[in-house]
Amino acid sequence: MSKHLLWVLSCCFSFTACNSFNSSRTAELARKSAKVTYSTNPGEQHMVFIPSGSFVMGQSKENEIFDQLSQQRKVSVSSFYMDETEVDNKLYHKFVNWVRDSIAITNYITDKESWYLKPPPGKKTDPSFDPKRINWAKVGDGRLIWNKVNRKKNPDLERMFLSSDGLFSNKGDLDVSQLRYQYSLFDFKQAFAARNSPVRGREEFTFRDTVNVYPDTTVWVKDFNYSANDPLMRNYFSHPALANYPVVGVSWRQALAFTVWRTNYVNNYYGRNKKRRKSEFRLPTEAEWEYAARGGLVAKEYPWGNNLKNDCDCLMANFKSGPGNYVKEKGIYTSPVKSFYPNGYGLYNMAGNVAEWTADLYSTSVLAKAGDLNPRNQHLPQRSDAKDMQRRVVKGGSWKDGPYFMRNAARSFEYQDTARSNIGFRTVVSISDERAILK
Length: 439
Description:
This protein has 2 domains: 38-88 and 274-437, paralog of FGE (formylglycine-generating enzyme) (Alpha-Beta Complex); 90-246, no CATH class. Helix content is 28%, strand content 14%. The protein contains 13 helices and 13 strands. The protein has helices at 2-35, 64-69, 89-108, 136-139, 143-146, 148-153, 188-193, 219-222, 230-235, 252-269, 286-294, 366-369, 434-437, and strands at residues 37-39, 46-50, 53-57, 73-77, 80-83, 180-186, 206-212, 281-282, 355-361, 391-395, 411-415, 423-424, 428-430. The strands form 4 sheets. A 5-stranded antiparallel beta sheet has the order 1-2-5-13-8. A 4-stranded mixed beta sheet has the order 11-10-9-12. Pfam families: FGE-sulfatase. Residues 45-428 form the Sulfatase-modifying factor enzyme-like domain. This is Gliding motility-associated lipoprotein.
């Protein structure tokens, strides 16, 4: 009897010690990760380190009806970097301006050669293998292109501007319909699916897309019936006072295009630094997003804990607290991207402000089908896709959503070509060696 009691006490002690070790490790990693930041470029948003770990995906304290419908599964996620904030108007403007200036140089400027990089002296180049590259150090913020002297010297630049129609546009407004970005990605999923087929060229598995990059500013009118939101439609993306607000009106396809541009932009900037590894920006998977949102906390409803208000009775995030009640401490619609306190990993607004695109296709049974190590439901768009293959997971809830969507486990979807006034995004970068970072 005494031996049995001793064995039970020993097991209880071991179980408690194990739990204590796991929670202390999680807390320690959260503390360390909050101190590790990753600057992608001077003047850009920082990224923070998210350590690897496991968690119960979909875990919540919903009522019994929702418990019957929700799925829960323990999964593990590798470490990665994540934007500490949602992508703001200022950073997305860099993307738009880059596309604008590229089109101006390649299509409308007469003396194109003066804007291209010169090959090293004595080096022979083949145009088919060495395409001309724009000298972005010269372009800078674009003022050299768009000043009066250069526009007079290159009259074709005026074709990038609208002529006044006396109703919607004024003379001098940029024709944003021309701001199209073409890019390509290698589709590893398709290549793997065809691994036993006869050898085919890389081109067959290359995904190509052309996307208009300018945000749909009309979402401020389209998303609301009989609402006077015209000032937001005109000013939200363009006004300097809103530069640090999250970009909205961006579809999933536009967000994907942004990740490709940002990858090239950052890698070209640091191209001569051989010690710096190349970065590949992408949208987070649903599992990565939910894991990061939890901030190292275990079995909590929200990124900060289990209560929607703090001890001072103030809301912990920017969301719609009741029917018709959009008013909160930080404003009536979106808030600056560093509003409210960050979670344990140093991430801002993982609940509220704007909901966020993830990389994954939306499915009601994804947890039952996906693996338990770095689960994802990947699919690059195809023209032949059925409607349910165009739905993407949206996480985090927004300024116009109720408390239910503030939960870490809450999920919804939107179609990949649809833009909304309450959906934005942030990006992640995978990490190959976590140990080197946490030394």
